[in-house]
Amino acid sequence: HMLIALAGPLSNLLLALVSALILRALPPANPQGFTLVEPVAAMCQAGVLVNVILAVFNLVPVPPLDGGNVLMGVVPEAVAPKRSVTPLEVVPRARAGVAIVTDEAFAWVA
Fold first, then answer.
1. Cα–Cα distances in Å, from 20 out to 13, 35, 52?
2. Angle, to 10 degrees, between the axis of helix 66-74 and the axis of helix 2-25?
3. How does pLDDT run across 49-93, given as a tens digit for each residue?
4. What's the pLDDT tens digit per position in 18-41?
5. What region, left, alpha or beta, does residue 60 occupy, with left being phi > 0 and alpha being psi -120 to 50 degrees?
6. Separation between Cα atoms, residue 60 and residue 57, nearest integer Å
7. CB atoms within 10 A of CB 55
8. What is the pLDDT of residue 35?
9. Nearest 5 degrees, angle CA 89-CA 92-CA 96?
């Protein structure tokens, strides 16, 4: 299960790497006018950012996420929890976490 759980975050990191390589290979932007370099560069920058964030988020060691399965594959059986956490047990904590992060992220607006 651990290798299967690592497939998601690893694919996100691979996509981020491909986006970064494309970004690096792009020619410099033309200061005299608009070219297709600018939107392609913006998409590649967004691709790097979004895929790195998704990879990190998926590795959070909460059992419904991939990181929980990776953690269960790494820790010895004596330390691992005897039962798995159901998604219904995680939802209230996840909602609280999203509320805190959202509040902090948008605090500058107020």
1. 10, 19, 11
2. 120
3. 999 998 888 887 776 667 766 666 666 666 655 555 555 555 566
4. 999 999 999 887 777 778 888 899
5. beta
6. 5
7. 19
8. 81
9. 145
Query: For residue 49, which amino acid is it?
Result: L
Measuring CA to CA, which residue among 53, 48, 73 is closest to residue 61?
A: 73
pLDDT for 110 equals 47
Residues 6+ apart with CB under 8 A from 40: 22, 26
How far is the first Cα of the chain from the last one, in angstroms, to the nearest whole number?
44
Positive or negative: CA dihedral 52, 55, 61, 65: positive
Q: Which two tokens stand for residue 22?
A: 């494309």
Residue 74 φ then ψ, to 5°: -95, -40
